[in-house]
Design goal:
With 196 residues, the protein is mostly helical. The chain has eight helices and no strands. The chain has one domain. Helices cover 74% and strands 0% of the residues. Helix 1 runs antiparallel to helix 6 (137-153). The longest helix has 34 residues, at 93-126.
């Protein structure tokens, strides 16, 4: 894979992560409504199916393998971007590689359960039954973690830092600590990184 192809694939992965988060926000907001017309339910079924398809591509074994290879090739560049941004999560090559390697492994493990949940929800909507629209909290945090790391690896520290702030403000560090994705101890103000 050429450097250009690697960068394009990494950006596609990051963009898909944003797409998943955005679709989930719209899906959840509309499913929080009191009543939905038949047409709205059908639209939400389509959105749910698009969300599931994006999730399955994002977490597909081949996709994650390519992303893992890309991260190994650009580890120092990612760590440099994290240092330049003043990252509170990662500051060296090894910590960034471990953070993203563990995140990618957790995404792979979450693939089928989240896809099954999305399929069940779209099936219920198709049958005219209301369901809440949220992705699992663990899933949202893994996606945010991957976007933060991906932005550092592609040397977009100007974007990565606000994403990292969003990740920390969302309480995702505690979620990833609970999941065992990152090691360390979370402060009550969520400002500590994986090292404590």
């Amino acid at each position: 894979m050429s450097k250009v192809t690697g960068d394009i694939e990494a950006m596609r992965w990051i963009n898909t992560a944003f797409q998943i988060l955005s679709m989930d926000d719209v899906w959840t907001a509309h499913l929080a409504g009191e009543s939905l017309t038949h047409e709205e339910m059908n639209d939400l079924v389509e959105l749910g199916e698009s969300l599931r398809n994006a999730w399955e591509w994002f977490t597909y074994e081949g996709t994650l393998h390519s992303i893992g290879k890309y991260m190994k090739q650009h580890a120092e560049r990612g760590a440099q971007a994290a240092r330049e941004a003043g990252s509170r999560l990662v500051s060296d090559t090894q910590t960034l590689q471990e953070f993203m390697s563990d995140t990618v492994a957790a995404l792979e493990n979450s693939r089928d359960p989240q896809a099954e949940q999305l399929e069940a929800k779209t099936g219920a909507l198709r049958a005219g039954k209301w369901v809440p629209g949220d992705l699992l909290r663990d899933t949202r945090c893994l996606i945010l973690a991957s976007v933060v790391g991906g932005a550092y690896f592609t040397h977009h520290h100007d974007v990565a830092k606000p994403l990292e702030d969003w990740f920390l403000a969302s309480g995702c560090l505690a979620v990833l600590l609970r999941m065992g994705v990152v090691k360390g101890k979370a402060d009550s103000d969520t400002t500590s990184g994986p090292g404590g």
